[in-house]
């Protein structure tokens, strides 16, 4: 890819699309040139809000726009397979929101398509691009706390969310696990990789989605990871990593931390703080920078958010849903067997 600025297209006009676009327009090396929605009215309103020159009332036109270097897909995750697939088929590079898809089968299809077409594809797991999370991972990998024994992470919202809300709609992939649980699972797998065994329990809504879920991930090394998510109770949203020689504690907001504390046996605790400029918005900008760096380097995937890692997370989410009995419409054969 050549050119001074990376030209972005935005597919969808909801809250996440607006948040990411607001961050993009502040980056001097990014240019948002087009937006698409299911209706032209919605696309035009979004374009006017952010000063975007082109607005499309369908996804296909954006996918065919050769002036777009990369498309950010921010639809509900139930539509990720179709939306990202349209763009990849047309040769567009794609940054796709998390959870990457409804299930591992759909994720495998998108990854295979991107690799066949030779275009860039990345899950928008901005936590992995956060400098402080990267520092934590490097310290643990370098043996700062010895061998990992356990990981804990939780993400819960107090709600309450009415039955009509997206988070409780099976047709939109509702439930705590895919929307929120993807973060604790991704944090655990960032440090430990894919588990060898999964045990899980959920409290289900009348609609059949999970209101809260807890899972225990087991590893051949002997390590365990406990993850929890909820849309019926606000949790600390914290994380910890315990090793044979110490522990790392990440307080509230582990997915965009402002600090973490390293406890090493026989030493005083060490606090690591984020750069004052690295607030929640900066995490999205770090993600955008990583996409643009990869595109300029001619890479088709990011080493920070590798596609094999995304597939592994999706397999774990499938395994959890299989064990607790959550399936979405039309998905009878879609979830990976337990």
Describe this structure as you would to a colleague:
This protein has 338 residues and is of the alpha/beta class. Helices cover 34% and strands 24% of the residues. The chain has nine helices and 14 strands. The longest helix is centred in the C-terminal third of the chain and has 18 residues, at 307-324. The radius of gyration is 20 Å and the shape is globular. The relative contact order is 0.15.
H/E element sequence: EHEHEHEHEHEHEHEEEEEEEHH
**N-to-C terminal Cα separation, in Å?**
42 Å
Count up the helices. Answer: 9
Q: Helicity range of the residues?
A: 25-40%
Poorly predicted regions are 333-338
Radius of gyration: 20 Å
Main beta-sheet strand count, sense and barrel state = 8 strands, mixed
Fraction of residues in β-strands: 15-25%
Secondary structure tally: strands? 14
Instruction: Report strand order across the widest sheet.
Output: 8-9-10-7-11-12-13-14
The shape is: globular
Which structural class do the helices and strands define? alpha/beta
């Amino acid at each position: 890819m050549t050119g001074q600025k990376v030209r972005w297209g935005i597919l969808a006009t909801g809250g996440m699309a607006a948040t990411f676009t607001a961050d993009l327009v502040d980056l001097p090396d990014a240019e948002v040139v087009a937006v698409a929605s299911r209706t032209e009215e919605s696309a035009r309103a979004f374009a006017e809000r952010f000063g975007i020159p082109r607005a499309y009332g369908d996804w296909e036109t954006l996918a065919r726009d050769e002036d777009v270097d990369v498309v950010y897909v921010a639809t509900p995750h139930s539509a990720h397979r179709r939306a990202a697939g349209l763009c990849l088929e047309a040769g567009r590079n794609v940054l796709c929101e998390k959870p990457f898809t409804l299930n591992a089968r759909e994720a495998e299809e998108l990854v295979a398509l991107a690799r066949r077409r030779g275009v860039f594809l990345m899950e928008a797991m901005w936590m992995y691009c956060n400098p402080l999370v990267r520092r934590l991972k490097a310290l643990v990998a370098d043996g700062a706390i010895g061998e990992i024994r356990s990981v804990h992470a939780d993400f819960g919202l107090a709600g309450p969310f009415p039955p009509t809300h997206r988070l409780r709609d099976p047709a939109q992939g509702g439930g705590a696990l895919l929307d929120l649980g993807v973060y604790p699972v991704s944090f655990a797998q960032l440090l430990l990789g894919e588990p060898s065994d999964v045990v899980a329990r959920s409290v289900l809504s009348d609609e059949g989605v999970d209101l809260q879920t807890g899972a225990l991930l087991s590893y051949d090394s002997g390590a365990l990871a406990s993850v929890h998510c909820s849309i019926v109770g606000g949790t600390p949203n914290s994380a910890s990593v315990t090793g044979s020689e110490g522990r790392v504690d990440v307080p509230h907001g582990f997915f965009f931390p402002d600090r973490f504390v390293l406890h090493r046996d026989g030493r005083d605790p060490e606090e690591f703080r984020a750069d004052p400029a690295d607030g929640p918005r900066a995490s999205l900008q770090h993600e955008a920078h990583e996409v643009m760096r990869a595109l300029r380097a001619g890479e088709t995937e990011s080493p920070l958010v590798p596609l094999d890692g995304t597939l592994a997370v999706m397999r774990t989410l499938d395994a959890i849903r299989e064990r607790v009995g959550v399936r979405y419409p039309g998905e009878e054969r879609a979830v990976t067997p337990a």
